[in-house]
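During the reporting period, our protein records have gained a structure token line. A sample record is set out beneath this paragraph:
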Amino acid sequence: MSADTDVKRWLDEREVSDLTKLSLSTLRAHRFLRKGMPYSKIGRSVRYCWDDVATFMANHRIDPTVIR
């Protein structure tokens, strides 16, 4: 995997907000409350790994054909 490809696997909070349809304030609140998706922080820069976002969405998937 090239370094350029590896960099593209990290998303900023606006990209995550666009993908998940969670507001920026919700993402920020989740970080403050230590819930939601894992993230990395360097200084003031927050980044989410694409794999973590995809896993989070898959874990919160609801299949209406499954009866509980």
